[in-house]
Specification:
The protein is of the alpha+beta class. The chain has helices at residues 33-43, 74-84, 122-132, 166-180, 209-212, 258-268, 303-318, 350-360, 397-409; strands at 9-12, 21-28, 46-55, 59-68, 88-91, 94-97, 109-117, 135-144, 149-158, 184-192, 234-238, 246-253, 271-279, 285-294, 322-328, 331-339, 365-375, 378-387.
Length: 412
């Protein structure tokens, strides 16, 4: 198992700041490969300004033009992209696809439990450390005690798959200690069962009338003017242009994770992109041309499948995330939800962006938690943040909503 050739992923870094770097992926194809690649690109905080995709169903060639807004670990990015590519082997110099005979074992889940003294921006600083260490947050529960201490429970997985070792645990504790300084009281890491992060059927708070509307897919038009949504995209299907493919043309507002939102939807519908082109050129609206086929190699002819795919794309591109700020008596609760891929993967860096936005607003957090719930036959990742009003109200509800939404959806 594994990729034997270093040129499967090639990266040509830009010599000028702000100019695109070029990433080329040349590997065996699989349904959902574009989604997996776009998810990694999103995780590394890169802006995709152009993409060309071409495949014959067996071999795939993808070129991405990406802009980095800060320092990027290009070698690590290359390693992650290579890990997403299907395995290939060679006989007499000829490459061929090798399918995985066994499904991959789910990653081990660890509980990171630490106690420290509270301060502004603490939760984001911890989240940033975990991201830099390539530790993925699967679930979290954070609470503040009356005496000003914080008890944080992070259920995490390790992208490097080394957290079971003493060195990796020690490095994690040392990194956290360096960031938190004297504020840290204790820190423990232990392995727990993967069932800890499994989704539930949904707690009572999601059945509250105030939050029900967040997951109501029938109210798409009503949300077109909502601050936490985009206008409905234009999506057209054409089965006449190509004898073997369905052409789907999408015109929509650009946002962070746009390509990921399109590709994960196609992946969930088991639809393959044979050829695709996307470019923004600095415009607020962008266009995607995708030549698609079903897993059986045929065009999408069935009108009901057309309608279902079009409806889902409209929803995912107008409301890729659900956001609501709710007053519950004296407290204010921020709830954000995003759909989980059928593969079980969630949208990357959501909690990071939420905590960064609140830190920028100097808005203290009293408690926070992440959970997964089945709602309307879909699995959702739900983030609940209880804001600490303290002895002053310095930020309006509208400002909080707009700042968090912009952080989540804007490239700026």
């Amino acid at each position: 198992m594994g990729i034997l050739y270093d040129d499967v992923v090639m990266i040509k870094q830009s010599e000028q700041e702000g100019k695109p770097s070029v990433i080329t992926v040349n590997c065996p194809d699989k349904t959902g490969l574009g989604c997996d690649i776009c998810r990694i690109i999103l995780f590394f905080g890169l802006t995709v300004v152009r993409i060309d995709v071409s495949t014959d169903g067996k071999w795939c060639y993808i070129v991405l033009w990406v802009v980095s807004k800060g320092s990027t670990e290009w070698d690590l990015l290359k390693s992650r992209l290579m890990g997403a590519c299907p395995s290939c082997s060679s006989v007499s110099g000829i490459l061929f696809y090798t399918s995985d005979s066994q499904p991959r074992k789910p990653p081990d889940v660890f509980l990171l439990k630490f106690c420290c003294y509270d301060r502004r921006g603490l939760l984001h600083d911890v989240t940033k450390v975990l991201c830099e260490l390539e530790l993925t947050i699967k679930k979290v529960k954070v609470s503040t005690t009356p005496d000003g201490r914080v008890m944080d429970l992070f259920f995490i997985t390790d992208t490097r798959e080394l957290l079971h070792t003493k060195k990796r645990k020690d490095d994690t504790r040392d990194y956290l200690g360096a960031v938190l300084g004297d504020a840290m009281i204790s820190c423990d890491i232990e392995m727990v069962g993967s069932e800890i992060t499994a989704c539930s059927q949904g707690p009572s708070f999601l059945s509250d009338p105030t939050t029900e509307d967040m997951f109501n897919i029938e109210t798409l038009e009503e949300h077109s003017s909502n601050a936490a949504s985009f206008k409905c995209p234009s999506i057209t299907f054409d089965n006449l242009l190509s004898p073997s493919h369905t052409l789907v043309q999408i015109v929509c507002q650009d946002h962070k994770g746009l390509l990921y939102d399109v590709m994960r939807t196609l992946k969930d519908y088991n639809i393959q992109v044979s050829y695709g082109r996307f470019t923004t050129e600095g415009k607020a609206e962008c266009e995607l041309d995708l030549f698609l086929m079903q897993s059986d190699g045929k065009k999408i002819i069935d009108p009901s499948k057309h309608k279902a795919l079009q409806s889902r794309l409209e929803i995912e591109l107008s409301r890729p995330l659900r956001l609501s700020l709710i007053s519950r008596g004296p407290d204010t609760e921020l709830i954000i939800a995003n759909p989980v891929e059928l593969s079980g993967k969630g949208r990357p860096l959501v909690f990071y962006d939420i905590t960064l936005a609140l830190k920028m607003l100097d808005q203290p957090i009293f408690s926070a938690e992440i959970g997964r719930y089945m709602i309307s036959d879909r699995e959702w990742e739900v983030y609940r943040v209880l804001l600490d009003e303290g002895d002053r109200v310095s930020v309006s509800k509208k400002q909080i909503e707009e700042t968090v939404w912009k952080m989540l959806m804007s490239w700026e």
